[in-house]
């Protein structure tokens, strides 16, 4: 039993998967700060609206000032660009993790808490643990980091299902939840969907069941795993097309389930020297259990 659990927690994964995922994550973080959590720029000067979340309260973080916001933004962007090239993977990586972690706490302390950032924050702390990616990088170290990102993705889905029933009760799947969402912020596609009898009601149950069963992703492989990832990716696409709500931070981390080691990034961009150091054949040979 202990041996099986160890193999599951430390699966052999090609180090190149971490290298590619780092590039995706570190290039996404500045976009997130500019597009999705940009409200942080607007809140300094309005300390009355600051309602710190639990972690911020435990750390005693005060309401941010304009100078703090600009400094944190600059630090995270610079660290992201450095980390994406594969240089100083631990130093730059943990600088991003701590800086963006602080940024997220500020963003979530001025209103709605976005649960789609959970997996992204876990990824930022897990990926630097692998260190420099090269031929001597252990597949188990890579597997540990990838597994934690996967667990965070699944936890986001599963806990979302739990929260729906805890706070909304069984009225969430049986009521007019999707109808209310379409009425409030529906797109052309959303308004078309509401014309189909029972479609939105069935969608509510389908989503709740899918999120509840999401831990199955952690035990699938091959085509079954790809089908599961495709299902959740399609759900996010349909959600965006229907009510203009995206889950891009979560979708980026969902890529941890895929064999990213097979991707070939343009070498001329200079991203991640670790990717170029690993031969494609050697990288793919090291990936067995996770697709």
Describe the structure in your own words.
The chain has 15 helices and no strands. Helix content is about 65%, strand content about 0%.
Give the low-confidence spans. 268-272, 279-289
Can you write the helix and strand succession as a string? Answer: HHHHHHHHHHHHHHH
**Computed structural class:** mainly alpha
The portion of residues forming beta strands comes to under 5%
Distance between the termini: 23 Å
**Radius of gyration over alpha carbons?**
20 Å
Largest sheet: none
**What's the number of extended β-strand segments?**
0
User: Can you count the helices?
Assistant: 15
Task: Choose one word for the global shape.
Answer: globular
Overall helicity: 55-70%
| Overall pLDDT confidence | 85
Give a short overview.
With 291 residues, this protein is mainly α. The chain contains 15 helices and no strands. It has helices at 2-9, 15-36, 54-59, 66-84, 89-108, 118-126, 139-168, 171-174, 177-185, 188-193, 199-212, 222-243, 248-254, 273-277, 280-285.
Tag the structure with descriptive keywords.
291 residues; mainly alpha
Detail the topology: elements first, then pairings.
Layout: H1 2-9, H2 15-36, H3 54-59, H4 66-84, H5 89-108, H6 118-126, H7 139-168, H8 171-174, H9 177-185, H10 188-193, H11 199-212, H12 222-243, H13 248-254, H14 273-277, H15 280-285
């Amino acid at each position: 039993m202990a041996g099986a659990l160890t193999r599951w927690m430390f699966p052999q994964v090609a180090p190149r998967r971490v290298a590619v995922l780092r590039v995706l994550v570190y290039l996404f973080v500045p976009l997130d700060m500019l597009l999705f959590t940009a409200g942080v720029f607007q809140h300094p000067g309005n300390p009355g609206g600051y309602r710190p979340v639990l972690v911020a309260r435990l750390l005693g973080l005060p309401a941010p000032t304009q100078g703090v916001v600009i400094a944190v933004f600059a630090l995270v962007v610079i660290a992201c660009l450095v980390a994406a090239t594969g240089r100083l993977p631990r130093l730059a990586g943990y600088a991003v993790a701590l800086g963006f972690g602080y940024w997220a706490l500020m963003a979530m302390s001025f209103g709605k808490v976005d649960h789609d950032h959970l997996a992204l924050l876990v990824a930022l702390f897990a990926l630097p643990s692998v260190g420099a990616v090269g031929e001597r990088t252990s597949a188990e170290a890579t597997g540990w980091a990838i597994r934690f990102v996967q667990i965070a993705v699944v936890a986001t889905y599963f806990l979302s299902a739990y929260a729906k029933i805890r706070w909304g009760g069984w009225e969430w799947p049986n009521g007019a939840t999707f109808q209310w969402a379409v009425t409030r912020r529906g797109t052309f596609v959303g308004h078309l969907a509401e014309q189909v009898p029972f479609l939105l009601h069935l969608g509510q149950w389908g989503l709740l069941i899918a999120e509840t069963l999401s831990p199955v992703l952690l035990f699938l492989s091959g085509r079954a795993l790809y089908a599961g990832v495709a299902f959740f990716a399609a759900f996010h696409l349909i959600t965006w097309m229907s009510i203009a709500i995206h889950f891009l931070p979560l979708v980026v981390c969902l890529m941890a389930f895929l064999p990213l080691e097979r991707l070939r990034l343009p070498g001329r961009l200079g991203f991640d020297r670790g990717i170029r150091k690993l031969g494609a054949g050697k990288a793919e040979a090291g990936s067995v259990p996770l697709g």
